Amino acid sequence: MDDVMQLGGSINLTGFRDVDGSSMVVLKKIIGNYAKRMSDISDKFESLSVTMKPVHGTEKSEKYEMHAKLMDNGKPFVSEVVDRNLFVAVDSVLKKIVNEIS
Fold this sequence. Notes:
CATH architecture: 2-Layer Sandwich
Largest sheet: 5 strands, mixed
CATH superfamily: Ribosome hibernation promotion factor-like
Strand content: 35-45%
Distance between the termini: 35 Å
Number of domains: 1
Number of helices: 2
Number of strands: 5
Helix content: 25-40%
Order of helices and strands: EEHEEEH
Structural class: alpha+beta
CATH class: Alpha Beta
């Protein structure tokens, strides 16, 4: 029962079902900007997958575990981050991949 959302044709978001609408707008913008940057600097951008897993979910102090995977010309680039701030977690996990491929 994976809840997979697609952005464009090559970006998959998993685990974001419970994120509120206004936060999703910001997240889609962040992820879209990173995807564009990745496609500009990668050899052959194939797909980007971002998966979120809430961990240690006590009220008002959730931690977000983020996994990102870029497929570039058949080669996977992966990163993982855990942070209390959803936006920081997404930014950090994608920044790691950009740093790895540039």
